[in-house]
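We modelled the chain as a single entity of 162 amino acids. Its sequence is:
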Amino acid sequence: MSDNRLEIRRSERGDMPALAALHNRIWNDRNSPQIRLVTPEEYEEHHPIGSELVALADGRLCGFVNMRPQTRMESNAHVVALAIAVDPEFQGLGVGRALMEAAYEAAKAEGKRKLTLRVMSTNEGAIAFYEKLGYRVEGRLVEEFYVAGRYVDDVLMYRMIT
């Protein structure tokens, strides 16, 4: 990134090809229980326009954080579930931190109280990253997935919005 120029905004229709390409490139058997390649149209179907924050470095889409309701129950409307992806070329440059901070601020502005996410136990770097951002382990679904010939725990993490 030149001059640390990073823009974060809500996703737009024109982002869908780059979002689908990043989705298809980023997920692997260490960070996702199921790999599914998608077209831009399929991506938009599952991630409606505006449901994600995207990061652009010098105009190039380099990451996203998906923000969705944890459930459809009104009694759970104060909780936002997150899923983040950063292009490997941009990892370690503050893009992930900026996206997670923007998600926190967006959820706070919407009156939400809790952020939650799920991370596979094999993704130790991501767990450490989330802990640095103030997320705590809320629970663990033991041997929840069978991936690449082994059982993997699903780690549930959260951060309260204050």
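As a brief sanity check on the tokenised model: DSSP finds four helices and seven strands in the chain. The mean pLDDT is 93.
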